[in-house]
């Protein structure tokens, strides 16, 4: 597991899987386009929904939860990283966000 920057996310391969591990009520502030919502408490039981052959980037509000999720996924054999500073850093940089689906 690596801690990556917003620039790394923007430059990531289009096949990367971005998972937003925040709780549902936290999504109102917006999500990264293309991200899938998998709350941190359900990621391990839903890990089978992820493609183990594709890189995963976990995102939360500030980076703590996504770091724990990425570490757990890495132990399961996924190539998983976490976004440093989470969505608060993404928003502070003025990067685009979309409404949750």
Automatic annotation (TrEMBL):
InterPro entries: GlpE_sulfurtransferase (IPR050229), Rhodanese-like_dom (IPR001763), Rhodanese-like_dom_sf (IPR036873). PANTHER family: FAD-DEPENDENT OXIDOREDUCTASE, PYRIDINE NUCLEOTIDE-DISULPHIDE OXIDOREDUCTASE. Residues 12-99 form the Rhodanese domain. CDD domains: RHOD. Transmembrane segments: none annotated. It comes from the Bacteria. This is Rhodanese-like domain-containing protein.
């Amino acid at each position: 597991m690596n801690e990556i920057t917003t620039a790394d996310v923007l430059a990531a391969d289009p096949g990367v899987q971005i998972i937003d591990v925040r709780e549902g009520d936290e999504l109102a502030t917006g999500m990264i386009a293309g991200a899938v919502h998998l709350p941190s408490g359900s990621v391990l039981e839903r890990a089978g929904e992820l493609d183990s052959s594709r890189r995963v980037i976990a995102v939360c509000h500030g980076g703590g939860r996504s770091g724990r999720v990425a570490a757990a996924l890495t132990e399961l054999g996924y190539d998983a990283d976490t976004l440093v500073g989470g969505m608060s850093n993404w928003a502070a940089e003025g990067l685009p966000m979309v409404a949750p689906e």
